[in-house]
Amino acid sequence: MTPASSSEFDQGIALRPDGEAGWYRGELGEGWQIGGGINGGFLLAAAANALRQELPQHPDPLSISGYYLSASTPGPYTVRTEVVRKGNSLSNATAVLYQQDEHGQQVERLRVLASYTDLAALDAEVGTAAEPPAMPPREQCIGAEHAPPQFVEQAALLRRFDLRLDPACVGWALGQPSGNGRIQGWFRLADDREPDPLALLLVADALPPVTFDLGRPGWAPTIELTVHLRALPAAGWLRVSHATRNLAGGYFEEDCEIWDEAGRLVAQSRQLARTPRAK
Amino acid sequence: MTPASSSEFDQGIALRPDGEAGWYRGELGEGWQIGGGINGGFLLAAAANALRQELPQHPDPLSISGYYLSASTPGPYTVRTEVVRKGNSLSNATAVLYQQDEHGQQVERLRVLASYTDLAALDAEVGTAAEPPAMPPREQCIGAEHAPPQFVEQAALLRRFDLRLDPACVGWALGQPSGNGRIQGWFRLADDREPDPLALLLVADALPPVTFDLGRPGWAPTIELTVHLRALPAAGWLRVSHATRNLAGGYFEEDCEIWDEAGRLVAQSRQLARTPRAK
């Protein structure tokens, strides 16, 4: 169902029809694990790929919301899709991603609700006041090769990425978090697979939790992640920033912006996640 | 199903069971119209009220996403709810709000996906870096009584509110929009009904479209609205700010913050809406 491709990402989200109309199956690879589960952005991309199969006229998510119901694990999964409405410029659809638990019970991992469109057909007007995040050139940024080994061990995911973090946002790796609640850097898939709307869903959840920069080194389970795809990304490197302002009640929001090499704000996302316990 | 109340809002979102388990019906009042349709925040609150009936242990939305499928009109509606998961601290559920079209066909107006919790039981920790919006005291702000009549005509909704806009954000009413993409003000329901989580869903979409401040006076249909409820609001006035940064491709995001009288950031929301045509 997915264009033949040698890219790790395309192979990772590849699907097969699963008999009944609207059902698909795939396999979550160990390489997309983070802190013991499968990365939430990757899972959203897998579900979004199933929806794309059902909406040939509107292949791109414009807005997509994922609610995470249980921790997904490497292994097979199935996706059930439902097309709710096919419109002229937008279509709406839902998806449910399931895995079998250790008792053979089908368990929901992720529920998705989305509006799909054809991003290539959007109005060309751009009247943005947003500025790309200011960060040093890539050669002055910090790659995963400098990350603490115990961190990389928990994040097989990092080997899929060429991620170069702004040195101003990596104090946490040395036990000196800035306290600003901001992590940003340059991003590219390690195998140089170029960005597209599905890859941007992965990128929206690809950086370390912004709570690392607040001295909370634990993993932060995502409750909800909504991504707005605002333009087709140009080929090349992406600039990604994650920031939080309101850590309260045991939860925090993480706002993400993704800028492409042409200097266009191509995606905006916000997630609500559970705050890791303070050390 | 809704506590007996003389408040316009509680009466507006009041529901009755509709036979089958999980189904409810209600009536959309003309008083909640804006630009010809029913206000999107009000519609989300009506659906959220149906979900609340199904989740007595977790009565409050923590995160709720609404996708708007067609313009709703005054008159009867039905809501179908589905509880997806009941957990210890969170439950997940979906809702679909329907109306009959002029041919008697059942049409979907709104699809909702949400995580519910008990906001009163949240961890008390607050470590926020967010600051309430700076705005003048209420007596220096501008009430709807000063709004252009042709504007109020299209917005019966405004009569339900005691809304006092920051004078710095109302230049658009005089044909002199600031161009900042920001509208903020003080909010209270006109009948003094105190804020609660369902009312905050209405408030998240209650101000004029932020595009007014960019010289785009038309109505801006909401594609998707996600609200994060971060705390139970204190009684009294709310401070509400709407801002946009990225108007592109025929769409714009509208970020909303709602602060309560105790100075707590009680809700954060973002919507993706269609940009009104330039004059």
From TrEMBL, chains A, B:
Domain of life: Bacteria
All copies of domain Acyl-CoA thioesterase-like C-terminal, residue ranges: 144-273
Pfam families (UniProt xref): 4HBT_3, 4HBT_3C
Domain Acyl-CoA thioesterase-like N-terminal HotDog residue range list: 30-115
Protein's name according to its UniProt entry: TesB-like acyl-CoA thioesterase 3
